Each structure stands twice: as C-alpha cells, then as structure tokens.
Amino acid sequence: MRIGYVRVSKEEQNQQLQLDALNNYGCDKIYQEKVSGTSKIRPEFERVKDILRKGDELVVWDIDRLGRTTLELIMFVDELNHKGILFKSLSQSLIDTTTETGEFVFKLFALLAEHERKRLIRRTRAGQEAARARGRNGGRPKGLSPHYKEIAPMVIGAYKQERSIRDIMKAFKIPSTATVYKILSENDIQFQDYKKIKTTPK
Questions:
Q1: pLDDT tens digit sequence for 21-69
Q2: How far apart are CA 28 and CA 63, in angstroms?
Q3: Are 152 and 186 in contact (CB under 8 A)?
Q4: Adjacent-strand bridge partners of 30
Q5: Global pTM value
Q6: Which residues are catalytic?
Q7: Which terms are listed as keywords in the entry (predicted)?
Q8: 45: Cβ contacts below 8 Å, ≥ 6 apart
Q9: CB 85 within 8 A of CB 56
C-alpha cells in the first residue's frame, strides 16, 4: 500500500500542491496535518507510523515534511528500512529507497549521521571528564538551598543598605563570600554591583 503524508503549517499555502503530487503518484491513502515542523505533537504522523507494514511505501512531497532535524529524519527512514517499508520523496529524486541508487544514497546519509552522532557523544563525554577533573559534576549548577532562598530577601536588604560582605556573612551565618554573591546574582543583582560592596577590615 502507498501511504501519503502531507504537512503544512498555518503560514504555508502549498497543501494542494502536495495533495496533487501524491494523488498523481498513486497513493492509496493520504494523511494530512496542519502543524508547524517544529511541533512535537503530530497526531496524523503518529497514525501513519502505526499503520505502516512491511512492503508498504511511505510517500511525501519533500523530506522536510517528516523530521525536525536531519538526524531525526535519517533515523526515522532507517527505522522504516529495517521494517521493510519503502520511502520516497517526490521532490528529491535521490531520496527513494524503492531503487538501488536511492537506497545507496540513503545509506550514505545514514553513515554520515551515525558518525556525527558518535562524534557528539565523544565530545559530551570529554566535557564531562574535564569537568570531573576540575572537581565539578556534570549537569546544571545547583541553585540555592531552601535556607538561602528563605534568607535571600534579608541579604538583599542588607546589601541595599550598603552593609559589607563580612557583616552580611556574620549576620546571616553565611560561610563564604561566593555564597553571598550567589544569593545576589540569583535575585537579579548584576555582577558589577558587587563592586559597591566592600569588606570591612578585620
């Protein structure tokens, strides 16, 4: 069975163009979707994936109708290939797994995509290892603890009254100047404003 898939965003006006092309190609059934290409919610696309079976052919007007990224698209078509489902893009003659040439081109794209995926994984791991070597864990920096969130308004008030960093640390039992700066920065106090704060001599 030949299954056609049409996607247009609200700003596009080429829905009929896609429909005419798919009908002329001989699609048995055509599914239409009106969503942006960046949208993650595409019910008709999910329906198409559910009904496709081995030996079927998925047809689109252009490959950008399917994936939000090149890697996502290639992974999807590779999945179709493994299931024995053919794929054809009418406006890109080389993207056609119903022919030997088209299948070769697609496999070349798939190899390049896999190489890029592995390269990104290596870079991510290298970054994590470098962070650990500097004594930091991976992921986002931790925010303020509940205690510091609770006293933040009082710390900011003391800062606005031009109290010194040392006085603020002593008054609120804050162990380091870095923590004071963090409390201020997480409450939209710009870094340059720290210059106004002077530590009192011992």
A1: 999 999 999 999 887 656 667 889 899 999 999 999 999 988 777 766 6
A2: 19
A3: yes
A4: 4
A5: 0.50
A6: 9
A7: DNA integration, DNA recombination, DNA-binding
A8: 5, 7, 31, 33, 66
A9: yes
